[in-house]
Amino acid sequence: MATGAMALVAVSLGGPLAATASAATPTAATPTAATPTAVTQLVPPCGQGGGPNKFEVFDNPNFSGACQDATNPVPDESNPVFNFNDKLSSVVNNTDTEMCLFVDSNFGSISFRSEPHTKLASIGDPFNNSISSIEPCP
């Protein structure tokens, strides 16, 4: 790079932890209309306080252990993608919606209700390690 030249560095996040960088020498600027810039709100990963409108479930009491985002209905927690069947012990409901947690798959049997904007460090018996499906309450 020539003396007095400036370098422009752009960083683009391509995934949760992936980043790439490139350098370029600026060229003469042509006056243009202002370009709107996008603002991205970073949402904490599961288990770190939750993001807005997230319903997170944990396999241990006190919001510890493995964590999953269960904001959308989960008809069968034994699904290999979710894989939380009969493992839930604590929940964080950062949504405006009451969530229903069921003992059986496909929203069957008795349910436990998690009120909006609440945290339960232990869901207790008979629901601890017994939940098999989750959906917003009707």
Automatic annotation (TrEMBL):
Sections of the chain in a coiled coil: none
Signal peptide positions (record): 1-23
One Pfam family of this chain: Inhibitor_I36
Record keywords: Signal
SUPFAM superfamilies for this protein: gamma-Crystallin-like
Manganese keyword on record: no
Protein name: Peptidase inhibitor family I36 protein
Protein species of origin: Pseudonocardia yunnanensis
